[in-house]
Design a protein that fits this description.
Elements: E1 9-14, H1 24-38, E2 42-49, E3 57-61, E4 64-69, E5 73-75, E6 78-80, H2 84-94, E7 97-104, H3 109-115, E8 122-126, H4 139-159, E9 162-165, E10 178-180, E11 202-206, H5 218-226, E12 235-239, H6 245-254, E13 261-265, H7 269-278, E14 281-284, H8 295-302, E15 307-310, H9 315-318, E16 326-328, H10 333-345, H11 347-364, H12 367-380
Parallel strand pairs: 1-2, 1-7, 2-4, 7-8, 8-9, 9-10, 11-12, 11-14, 12-13, 14-15, 15-16
Antiparallel strand pairs: 3-4, 5-6
């Protein structure tokens, strides 16, 4: 039951999660699968996990065959199943996959794909710096993560034929067989809206809001927004899903800004583009190096929306302070509020940073050039 047709060679893209689940890793893997599907000599098959249920499903989505494996349990954000080693071998064989491109940092499925790929070359794309949370109550999780990053991950790196680091702070960066290919943005879709100075005073966050992703710092953003009482027309919109959303809205209530904070859920497609294009500022207040890139920042910059990010992880490699956006110390609600106030009140600054951000995206982050580098890497192996 091989998917290989004619002279096309099959690449298995293995990721713990995949659209319609929203996230940077998911979007990145989907872009690679789409580029493979469009190539005349390559063909993708995606192997990922189901959101629920134990049985394997096989579907065709956006012209790509997607195999979804069941998970027996979930530990923090990590789905797990003892059957995966056998299932991965079976599906790699059935689909005729000749190369594996696995996406981490979520342990489990990507590591196993590299381990069981046999003679097939494996390309491991690593999307994060250390996943150490450093949050209150995360002691056990941090010890487990530390053990994994010290003992298991180096072996996975050595087993892979090639490594792709998505930013200089990715744990794969600096390895002798690593190359850097950042995430990208569809510059024909994420296009500039009206000048930021003419938009409503909307402060926007786009991303996960899970308790296990507290390092995203959305609570810091809510606290910072509460300090903008001198801007009564300002609004904070939270785009994304997760089990921490009720807690964040409750925090807004305690801070007296509930009527000006709205959680709009997960948005995709033109709804997401419209939201980003219409915001006056987008903020990414992450607290740790787990934020190795910051996809939401690049999408905002493509829309000429000025951005504020924490000076942590990969964010300073995306945002140049005072040129393409503003940077603040991670976890500092006061500094974040001050930066957002500057962009909401200084129209000239907001427009200048927004325009510079668009130029930077066109120069460095257009998807077409980035996915072509992937195809060249796959062909070389």
């Amino acid at each position: 039951m091989s998917t290989t047709t004619g002279t096309r060679r099959t690449v298995a893209v293995v990721a713990p999660y995949y659209p319609p689940k929203v996230g940077g890793v998911e979007h990145y893997a989907a872009r690679i699968a789409a580029a493979l599907a469009a190539a005349p000599d390559l063909e993708p098959v995606v192997i990922t996990t189901r959101p629920s249920g134990l049985r394997t499903t096989v579907t065709t989505e956006q012209g790509v065959r997607v195999v979804r494996l069941g998970a027996w349990l979930k530990l923090s954000n990590t789905p797990l199943s003892p059957l995966w080693p056998f299932q991965l071998r079976r599906w790699l064989r059935r689909t005729g996959a000749e190369l594996v491109n696995a996406h981490a940092p979520v342990p489990g499925l990507p590591d196993l794909a590299v381990a069981v790929c046999g003679r097939r070359p494996a390309v491991l794309t690593y999307h994060a710096g250390s996943m150490h949370k450093g949050e209150p109550g995360s002691g056990l999780a941090d010890r487990l993560i530390g053990g994994y990053e010290r003992a298991v991950l180096p072996r996975v790196f050595r087993r892979a034929k090639a490594l792709v680091a998505v930013s200089p702070v990715s744990l794969a960066a600096g390895q002798p067989h690593a190359v850097q290919i950042t995430p990208g943005v569809d510059t024909a879709r994420f296009t500039p809206g009206p000048p930021a100075s003419g938009r409503p005073r909307t402060l926007l966050y786009v991303g996960r809001m899970d308790r296990t992703s507290a390092w995203k710092g959305v609570d810091v953003l809510v606290e910072a927004f509460a300090r903008l009482a001198d801007l009564p027309d300002a609004r904070l919109r939270l785009v994304g899903g997760g089990d921490a959303v009720p807690e964040l809205l409750a925090l807004a209530g305690r801070l007296g800004v509930a009527e000006r904070v709205e959680a709009v859920g997960e948005l995709t497609g033109e709804q997401l583009v419209s939201e980003v294009r219409g915001a006056a500022v987008l903020a990414l207040p992450s607290r740790t190096e787990a934020e190795s890139f910051g996809m939401a920042l690049v999408e905002a910059m493509a829309c000429a929306t000025p951005v504020v990010g924490s000076a942590v992880g990969g964010i300073p490699h995306v945002v140049t302070e005072g040129e393409t956006g503003l940077l603040v110390a991670p976890g500092d609600a006061g500094a974040l509020a001050a930066a957002c106030r500057r962009l909401l009140t200084d129209g000239e600054l907001a427009d200048r940073l927004g325009a510079a951000g668009r130029r930077e995206v066109e120069r460095r982050y257009a998807w077409d050039g980035l996915t072509e580098r992937y195809l060249e890497l796959f062909r070389s192996l």
